[in-house]
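Dear colleagues,

For the upcoming journal club I promised to circulate an example of a predicted protein-ligand complex. I picked one with pyridoxal-5'-phosphate because it came up in last month's discussion. The inputs are reproduced below in full, followed by the predicted structure.
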Amino acid sequence: MSRLEQIIDLEQRFLLPTYNRYPVGFERGKGVFLYDFEGKKYLDFVAGLGVNALGHAHPRIVKAIREQAARVIHISNLYYNEYQGQLAERLCQLSGLDRVFFSNSGTEAMEGAIKLARLAGHKAGGDAKSQLVALQGSYHGRTFGAMSLTGQDKYRKGFEPLLENVTFVAQNNLEALHAAVNANTCAIVLEPIFGEGGILECSEEFLLACRTLADHHQAALIFDEIQCGLGRTGKIFAFQSFGVVPDIVTIAKPIAAGLPLGAFLSKEHFASAISPGQHGTTFGGGPLACRVGLEYLAIVEEEHLLENVVKVGGYLHQQLEELVAKYAATRETRGRGFIQGLALDVPARPLVEQALAEGVLFNATQDTVLRFLPPFLLEEKHVDKGIRVLKKLLGKKRKKSGDRVIGSSGDLKT
Ligand SMILES: *Cc1c(COP(=O)(O)O)cnc(C)c1O
């Protein structure tokens, strides 16, 4: 048995069968590349689902982890550490919000954010002010609170009963939004750009309406920027690209460069609703993760990575547009910066599997969408390589350029 086969065999015997992994494993990475157990190199357009924004084995991250691990990794939240306050200060400076709570994951950040909104809601309007409004097609995580806000049956089915008092609204549907929000609403919760949901953006008009309604009803406007935040749109916070400021924002994926860390940031008005003992965590905000979080933000700034996201993201968008003009199996491009999608008329997973053989990692979501969440270090020559592989795999060209028949199915080379 090969090394990979041994690993697969062991997992099949001892792990809960929750993951549908691709038939490949990785031993190490460097920059925008990963290497499998045979030493084969792969160009990474997935970045660990948006976590590895600094690529793999960034020298400054490696150094910070080495140094801090030799000093202290964990002390619990019974005591002060050097870095939690510093990282909170930096996040507040960058966002314009006032206070931070650190968790271990995105899902946990969502849980904390909802708890805070419920507390503030009850203070403002009594027990009845507990209603949550979320979007159909959204994804917020797998715990009961986050799952209850996730507007997709496939994640909810089998786990009922879920959290009560959640109303779902179609993305960008102003009428449905107005019908759903009322005096008993304590929070409107949304991703400015659906990530897992297929890279679909909220319109500025819709976000503005959410802002106005939340203000009118003293509800919290909560943005889940766990996937689209921290640089992926070309701004540190996605809301800065849309010009609508939320009351609470959740972040996670890239913040500690692969170490588990999440957070929610809140305006003082909502933050002041909570008191000591009402929320907490053993691991969250530890000295190692927070020091690495500070290093992440410093690297993004000092290496001018947001400029790169805008420049190379623009190039990627243009190249994907050309594919849509030429290939029958493609439908449309979505997103911006380094959170982009290519919607297909055919299943995306076979294409992702075929790209593995070509040494390129893509991600499929919502069955027919190819999702691109590359490291911020990606260059135009890497985009060219990815596009070359896609051209090889997309199969038939359209009859004439621009001749896009919606719903037609192109066939994939197998
Ligand atoms: C990944 C993700 C989550 C969940 O984060 P975890 O770290 O997996 O718990 C929540 N919301 C969005 C938008 C995400 O992309």
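Two points we might discuss: The first strand starts at residue 26 and ends at 30. The CA atoms of residues 144 and 162 lie 6 Å apart.

See you all on Thursday,
B. R.
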